[in-house]
Amino acid sequence: MKVVSFSLEEGAKYYGSIDGNRFFIGKRVPYAGGKGLMNVSGNAGQRYDRAEYREKYKFWADFIHPTAMAEGALFHTLNTYDRAHFTFSFLQFAAHVPNGDFVIYLRRLLKELPVLAKEYFPDLEIVGTRIHRVRGNSSTELENDHSTAGIIDYLNPSLAEIEDTEIIQAARFIHWVQNDAAHRALQIDVGIDNFKKAMSGYASHYKLDGADDIVCLLVADIRHQGRAHDAEIFNALKAADPASELVKLGEPRYHERLLTIKKEIKRLKDEGTLGRHRYKKDRRDFVPV
């Protein structure tokens, strides 16, 4: 079992140690009257690089790039201060969504990387298809189709203050992903698979069959973050230039994020990666034009 020790230093920064390896866990930040952890600091080797994954995932490695950049892009990106209670990964998988990206991610970690899963989270296991916490001879389901309250309680019980549990669980995720290439690969696989499945649904819901890649990317990013309602998205899609309207959704509240999205879309368009594909519903994929 991985034993975590931690300390609060420099006034607001938590550092951890596992197996004698010291690392940054997160900065203490205030939010909406409460407190939580944030970690968006790291080096290039800890950041999503689409070039490394293009051979396996093709255009999808590029398609998720702007969203990844807006979400922090670091494999250990951490946020424990808002309503999700715990978001983690280069795409900030959120723990508050039943059957959502974080739940799928944790299920797969426990199932596909069982040896290290037992080292980092010895009290978690998959029972049937659900994540359970095991204590002695008892087993408690932590998530179902309607709630992730058990997972939230396990990771970050309260937004009012930063608990030891919150620091320790964050440290385990951070140390594991920083020191295990298989963990990072699984994180990428979960992220891209989630976008693929989501785009198939968006193609039907928003009538995006044949839509260009930039419009699809903007819809996918809006839905990933949840910054606009359906009515706003449908109205933007009716415009003469849907992309220019979609990229405004979320202003002014999410202005900084939208600047990042626009900058990265321009970068990919200028290099000839974006603006050259359309989504085909029957193939559940993008095709060159």
Description:
With 289 residues, this protein is α+β, with helices and mostly antiparallel strands. The chain has helices at residues 50-57, 59-63, 65-70, 101-112, 114-120, 149-155, 164-178, 181-205, 213-225, 230-237, 242-246, 255-270; strands at 5-9, 13-18, 21-31, 34-39, 78-79, 87-88, 93-94, 124-127, 130-135, 138-141, 277-280, 285-288. It folds into two domains: 5-185, no CATH class; 206-288, no CATH class. The chain is built from twelve helices and twelve strands. The N and C termini lie far apart (52 Å).
Protein topology:
Blueprint: E1 5-9, E2 13-18, E3 21-31, E4 34-39, H1 50-57, H2 59-63, H3 65-70, E5 78-79, E6 87-88, E7 93-94, H4 101-112, H5 114-120, E8 124-127, E9 130-135, E10 138-141, H6 149-155, H7 164-178, H8 181-205, H9 213-225, H10 230-237, H11 242-246, H12 255-270, E11 277-280, E12 285-288
Antiparallel strand pairs: 1-2, 2-3, 3-4, 4-5, 5-6, 6-7, 8-9, 9-10, 11-12
Helix pairs in contact: 4-8
